């Protein structure tokens, strides 16, 4: 792309994949300039069965754009079928591959890509980063379920329709085993990308201890994890927006941390 064309750009409804008969799309914002820019792929929440790539994560857009970070907010397949639970991680991986393959078109650096996910989207982002099928530079996970076995028992994050379909059946044991396989805390390993976990201390849906335990396990294997607590905050960044003492600090920390993790190697930049 020519220097003349290298102005700030926005993209709407760009298809990056088709899976299970579903077109998967993203919206994106690219900073002004020639780049290549660091990039963040954003994964919305919604209990895996609902949610929206625009409304649910809108508070993240402006801080990233102001920091000179390109962002891509993506769709994924929403699932209510317990037998196909977790398939959406493939969609997150597809988005990472697409952005890397089209890095020159979007003026981004394919080696400086982070995943950002909130709630169920944080779970999918964490799994995508830990499965070993794609590589990213960093992960920001907001109030993320990291231990699904614990959550399956009593959290409101797991839709009742999933519990009701399997309670008391032969599938229940299989589902619990599957939840263990899909728990990011069970996939922690040395050499994994750094994580920033952001979590409200009063979260009644995904307990704060889920992030604390994830960070502790990462530290035990020598991986880099930082836990940023949002005092007295519940579940959901849109709920935090009306309280500056909640919304302001986590955004500043997210941007600071991402700039640190996605900074260009000063030797290569010479």
Descriptive report:
By secondary structure, the protein is α/β, with parallel strands linked by helices. It has one domain: Rossmann fold (3-Layer(aba) Sandwich). The protein contains eleven helices and eight strands. An eight-stranded mixed β-sheet has the order 1-2-4-3-5-6-7-8, sandwiched between helices. Helix 2 packs across helix 4. The C terminus is likely disordered.
What are the low-pLDDT stretches, counting only 5+ consecutive residues below 50? 266-270
CATH architectural designation: 3-Layer(aba) Sandwich
The spatial strand order of the largest sheet comes to 1-2-4-3-5-6-7-8
- Here the CATH topology equals Rossmann fold
Helical region count?
11
Name the helix and strand elements from N-terminus to C-terminus, one letter apiece.
Answer: EEEHEHHEHEHHHEHEHHH
Overall residue-averaged pLDDT value: 90
* SS strand fraction: 15-25%
CATH superfamily grouping: Alpha/Beta hydrolase fold, catalytic domain
Number of strands: 8
Number of domains: 1
Q: How does the overall form come out from the CA principal axes?
A: globular
Span between termini: 22 Å
Q: Quickly give the structural class.
A: alpha/beta
Write the layout of secondary structure elements.
Layout: E1 9-19, E2 22-30, E3 37-43, H1 61-66, E4 70-74, H2 89-101, H3 103-106, E5 108-118, H4 120-130, E6 138-142, H5 148-154, H6 160-166, H7 171-181, E7 195-200, H8 208-220, E8 225-230, H9 237-240, H10 244-261, H11 266-269
Parallel strand pairs: 3-4, 3-5, 5-6, 6-7, 7-8
Antiparallel strand pairs: 1-2, 2-4
Helix pairs in contact: 2-4
